[in-house]
Each structure stands twice: as structure tokens, then as C-alpha cells.
Design goal:
The chain is of the alpha/beta class and 190 residues long. The protein contains six helices and ten strands, in the order H-E-E-H-H-E-H-E-E-E-E-H-E-H-E-E. Helix 3 packs across helix 4. The chain binds guanosine-5'-monophosphate.
């Protein structure tokens, strides 16, 4: 997605050889116009599928997932990282190790919002080692839902997650795929 690649080149900050900061449009401040384009692009990539539910993880997956939901008219469920008082019992849960924070969180989704009748598309902001996506796949499996694929805004193709998940037969569509962040430069796969 050229618009997204241009935005990353213009506004992204390379924090290290493995971490990209895109706080100006995706991870802190949100640019609704590019989020809308991202939602439309996901809808195009999965136009051959019937999606009954979009599953993501708080917080940075919510904006792109919601824009996709608006385009295709499907509800968005986000996995929570902290158990709130209102989210008790009746949960699907999975453990996710965070690449950027180097901590393990239990993520949870209420059984009220995911079931064996659902055709699920998983959305997230970044794909690095695949831990977040694996946690969401685990939750969908507990619900008995059918996962049709995974949509990622920015894949870091030099890390293992994409390869491992594709090897397991998971369909992954990433809108920008980064080959390298070496020397402070963002380089994309074609
Ligand atoms: P994974 O679970 O695939 O190892 O990492 C994906 C998760 O970690 C995403 O949900 C994202 O929030 C975070 N993440 C991984 N790499 C980056 C990065 O380079 N920049 C930012 N901003 N977040 C990242």
C-alpha cells in the first residue's frame, strides 16, 4: 500500500534495528484519513470472504479494525490486556508476550462476543514475532470460530512471526512489509 509506505518513510522513527515508532498516525495520535484507507484496503484484500467478526487487541489494533468494520459492516471485538471489574467470568483467555514491552500479559475476550458461528478476521498494527496474533488465534480456537485470515498494518518481515504463521497455513495480508531497519533506514520488501 503505497500511501502507507510513504507515510512510514515520512513520519516513522527508527528506534533500533528492530523497533519502528509510528506514534504520529497509528500508535498514539491517530490519523483517521489514513486509517480509513487502511480499512478499505483490508476490505479489498479479503473481499472474497464473509466476515462476521473482526478480532483485534488493545490498543493500537482498534483504530484500523474499526475502520475495516465501518467499511464492511462487521462488529469489532478487542481483546483486553487487563481484567476490568466488568470483565469477569465467562472469558476466553490467552498469554501474550509483548515484543516492545518485554512482559507477558493475559489477554481476554468475553464469551458473549465470539462464538462457533463466527467467521473471524484478525487485525493488528504490527507483526513481529507473531505472539499477539498467536494469542488471538488461540482465543478464536477456544470459541470454535473459523479464522479466515489475518490483516496486519505493518509487518516486520525480518522477524519470524509472519514466516511461522504462514507455515502453519494462516493467510496473512500485510499492507507494508519491512525488510530492514538497519542504519536507521526503513527498507521495504517489494
Ligand atoms: P508480536 O506479538 O508479533 O511479536 O509483536 C506485535 C505486537 O507488538 C503489536 O501488537 C505491536 O503493538 C507491538 N510491536 C511489535 N513491533 C513493534 C514496532 O516495531 N513498533 C511498534 N510501535 N509496536 C510494535
Amino acid at each position: 500500500m503505497q500511501l502507507l509506505k510513504d507515510k512510514i518513510l515520512k513520519e516513522g522513527r527508527v528506534l533500533s534495528d528492530t523497533v519502528l515508532k509510528v506514534d504520529s498516525f497509528l500508535n498514539h495520535q491517530i490519523d483517521p484519513l489514513i486509517m480509513k484507507e487502511i480499512g478499505d484496503e483490508f476490505a479489498n484484500r479479503f473481499t472474497d470472504e464473509v466476515i462476521t467478526k473482526i478480532l483485534t487487541i488493545e490498543s493500537s489494533g482498534i483504530a484500523p479494525a474499526t475502520m475495516l468494520g465501518l467499511t464492511i459492516g462487521a462488529p469489532v471485538v478487542f481483546a483486553r490486556k487487563r481484567k476490568s471489574l466488568t470483565l469477569s467470568g465467562n472469558l476466553y483467555s490467552a498469554e501474550v508476550h509483548s515484543f516492545t514491552k518485554n512482559e507477558t500479559n493475559e489477554i481476554s475476550v468475553s464469551k458473549d462476543f465470539l462464538s462457533a458461528d463466527d467467521n473471524v478476521l484478525i487485525i493488528d498494527d504490527f507483526l513481529a514475532n507473531g505472539e499477539a496474533v498467536k494469542g488471538l488465534l488461540d482465543i478464536a480456537e477456544q470459541a470454535g470460530a473459523n479464522v479466515i485470515g489475518v490483516g496486519i498494518v505493518i509487518e516486520k518481515g525480518f522477524q519470524q512471526g509472519g514466516m511461522l504463521l504462514r507455515e502453519q497455513g494462516v493467510r496473512i495480508e500485510s499492507l507494508a512489509n519491512i525488510k530492514s531497519l538497519a542504519n536507521g533506514q526503513v527498507e521495504f520488501f517489494d
